[in-house]
Amino acid sequence: MRHIVRRVVGVLAVLGLVPVLFAGAAQADDGDTVYFSSGYMNCSIAGDGTVGCDFTSQAQVQYSFLPILIPVRDIVIDQSWLPAHPTFAVGTHTLPGGNPQLVDVKTGDGTWGSYIEHAGARCESGFHGSFSCKSKGRAWGIYSGIISAS
Fold first, then answer.
1. How far apart are CA 97 and CA 100, in angstroms?
2. Cβ(129)–Cβ(58) under 8 Å?
3. What are the backbone angles phi and psi of residue 30, rounded to the nearest 5°?
4. Highest mean pLDDT: which range of 18-22, 73-77, 84-88
5. Residues 84-89: contacts with CB within 8 Å, 24+ apart?
6. CA end-to-end span of the chain, whole Å?
7. pLDDT band at 90 (very low <50, low <70, confident <90, very high)
8. Which tens digits make up the pLDDT trace of 10-54?
């Protein structure tokens, strides 16, 4: 009888592990990410304040500590100790079918255009098509395809 009980317990234990063994990686979707677009950028602000944008055409980033411009297709602020930087994972800030316009999800209007504030981050359209985002003590701004990042 003990032998049968051990086998039943063993089979139940294995069956309990099957879903764990075949489960994919957990996908955190807290529904707290805001998506929007502005000009040729599709952007998102996550619930932890991470902000990033995909560019539909190539832009160039200028860091004050580098003497050259770097061509990029996306930029993100995800760490307070790291300047705004490309991730080379284009498309991560774009919803299937595209993002709604900034004006449709804005939280306010600034001097030159709409802005959105979410989870401690702020992105705003500016003078003559400029655009900027701030979060985690870092910022980046774009004008005429040149990004200034800090």
1. 9
2. no
3. -85, 0
4. 73-77
5. 84/133, 84/138, 84/139, 84/140, 84/147, 84/149, 84/150, 85/61, 85/149, 86/61, 87/52
6. 71
7. confident
8. 433 333 333 333 332 222 334 699 999 999 999 999 999 999 999
The tally of CA atoms less than 13 A away on the side-chain side of residue 101 is: 5
Q: What's the pLDDT at 15?
A: 34
Cβ 141 vs Cβ 60: under 8 Å: no
Mean pLDDT taken over the chain: 83
Residue with tokens 């009980």: 5
Work out the burial of residue 62: count CB atoms within 10 Å of its CB; fewer than 13 is exposed, 13-18 middle, 19 or more buried: middle
Cα–Cα distance list, 52 to 6, 64, 120 (Å)? 54, 20, 14
